[in-house]
Amino acid sequence: MNKATYVTTPIYYVNGLPHIGHSYTTIAADCLARHRRLRGDDVYFLTGTDEHGQKVLKAAQDKGLSPQDFVDQIIPRFKEAWKKLDITYDDFIRTTEPRHIETVQYFLQKLFDQGDLYRGEYEGLYCVPCEVFWTEKQALENLCPDCKRPVEKLKESNYFFKISKYQDWLISYIKERPDFIRPDTRRNEVLVFLEENKLNDLCVSRPKQRLTWGISLPFSPDHVTYVWFDALINYVSALGFPTKKDKFDKFWPVAIHLIGKDILRQHAVFWPIMLKAIGLNPPFMIFAHGWWQVNEEKMSKSRGNVINPLDLIDEFGIDVYRYFLLREVPFGSDGVFSKVSLIKRFNGDLANDLGNLVYRTLTMAEKYFDSKIPELYEEALDPIALKELSPRMNALPSKVDAALENLDFIAGLVAIWDLIGCANKYIEDTKPWNLKKESKTKELESFIAVLIAVLRAVAREIEPFMPQTAALISAQIKPDRVSKGAPLFPRIDVQHVN
Fold it and tell me: Which pLDDT tens digit goes with each residue over 288-332?
């Protein structure tokens, strides 16, 4: 049987369009999903939208629409963005779908029936844009720690989830599984939080007199579900839990959640406890990546410093954008976005290295062998091909496997570019024009044949990162001949970029 892979992004709020932060998580998930498919895995790649809550309701009211009409208009724009970003998701979950609502109500009813939910009074500080409750200690000067907007004081009769009784279990679970929360900095952050703070029970409802847009509690029709409790359940509702047992049993044990570090606590504290309480295991891994920043600030709609990824794609191309995001900073660390850095990657890694190797290899095949791919004669290979190129080609798949197993996209790309660099050096050192002058036909044939093999290996391994580039390279290399196209990455003059 094929190995199963289940990779998820967060579900994204629909009160705005995707920005670089959204696209970063989604491209990383897509790269991992493509890689696992390439290796023969049975992959289930989930993304989707979070459509309930107060800020969605407000955005709808601002446009004079019902919440359902508002979200129905937004969803096609999300799907169009993912199509333009070349995202190959298998499922797109919406929290307004019946399959999701049924699973959320199953969670609520089960927790209520077993005594893990109780009714009580809540008084605290609430940030409407972030849909998060804060303590007075956290919300200094009555400002949300995340978006810096004013919080409002709420006093409501709500239902609470007894997460505090599962705190010791969660601490032990995290300590026993070093790979459950990654990278290590985030794991340590969660452990410090849990060991230094007693968890407050989680408010899981809002009264309908204050918020009507949400999933009704099955045992209290006067309340709707708190948006975070609702949203987290998407990861299992998309698998058909609790009714589609075969699908759930196949994919849930291997679930990998890719998230931004700003939603780590919800995923690494609330979510495992929610699952434990109804008798399910936590996901296999939660990986929290860093933020893309502009002028040392997190990029977010609330701060007004969002860069539209679709504009960058129009200017530079989808694969350039994907390459830059996955190559520029370690997945897990923060990065500062700038066009200057992107163009540097373009002119260096893509134009000088990869583009140059493809173009001059195919040019030589065209010039020396009338575009036919020559034979490779082992006895005619020189020491560079035997000791440098061939070992790198043979080891490349396992190196990329090891890198992506750790979600180290940079290491995977570095391994590919190591082969590209070696091939470019091979051309400089071998000087094929001299082989032609000296009529060393077998040596020249083998030289070109080895380079063609390198390009095929590069195209195969680069596909998860840069799918369109991989397809273009493969299209230029037929089984027995080449068909040289235009240079893949013509250099950019920085002076002419906006």
Answer: 999 888 766 665 555 666 678 888 899 999 999 999 999 999 999
Same domain, 233 and 355: no
* pLDDT surpassing 90 at residue 218: yes
Nearest alpha-carbon partner for 170 in 134, 189, 195, 146: 195
Contact of 344 with 484, CB cutoff 8 Å: no
Number of domains in the chain: 2
Closest Cα partner for 270 from 194, 333, 182?
A: 194
Whether 479 has a pLDDT exceeding 90, the answer reads yes
Phi and psi at 384, nearest 5°, equal -65, -45
Name which of 344, 228, 318 is nearest 30 in CA terms: 318
- Residue-range definition of the domain harbouring residue 85: 4-316
Three-class DSSP category at 292: strand
Indicate whether 151 and 270 sit together in one domain. Answer: yes
Beta 4-13 vs 255-260: how paired, if at all? parallel
Q: What is the pLDDT of residue 354?
A: 98
What is the CA angle 34-36-40, rounded to 5? 110
Q: What is the mean pLDDT of the chain?
A: 92
The burial class, CB within 10 Å (0-12 / 13-18 / 19+), for 88 is middle
Q: CA 256, CA 258: separation in Å to the nearest integer?
A: 6
- Is the model more confident about 137 or about 100? 100
* Mean pLDDT, residues 363-392: 92
Angle between helices 54-62 and 67-84 in degrees, nearest 10: 100
| Partners of 119 in beta bridges | 159
Mean pLDDT value across residues 446-466: 97
> What per-residue confidence (pLDDT) applies to 298?
60
CB-count exposure of residue 428 (10 Å: 0-12, 13-18, 19+): exposed
Residue 160's CATH number: 3.40.50.620
Q: In whole angstroms, give the CA distance from residue 132 to residue 145.
A: 10
